[in-house]
Amino acid sequence: MNILYAEKDDYSYKLMETILKDKHVLRRAEDGVEALESITNNNFDLLMTTMQLPKMDGLKLIKEIRKFDKNLSIYVVSSLYLEDAVLEAYASGADNYIKKPISVNYVKGVVDNLK
Q1: Does pTM surpass 0.90?
Q2: How far apart are CA 83 and CA 71, in angstroms?
């Protein structure tokens, strides 16, 4: 599966890369604008994004993508686990919400089972 991970933090990106590299191709965007450009110009099966990104936050990114792509799977990965944040992510068009700190088995399960 071709995955774009919008993540500004090097450690978080490397951790996700380590978790998924055996079965998936993971590419990185370090800010929301770069992520939007990558989604527009490439074919990804899944976007994973954090909420807090430079240039364009994760919620704005999701809303922009949903204007032209209703089918792309989008997972939010965030340490913000307040009910309002989760609901806002889903309302913006996210398909799943993965809480940090990341559970390796959970991430593998939800990504591997994505159809």
Answers
A1: yes
A2: 25
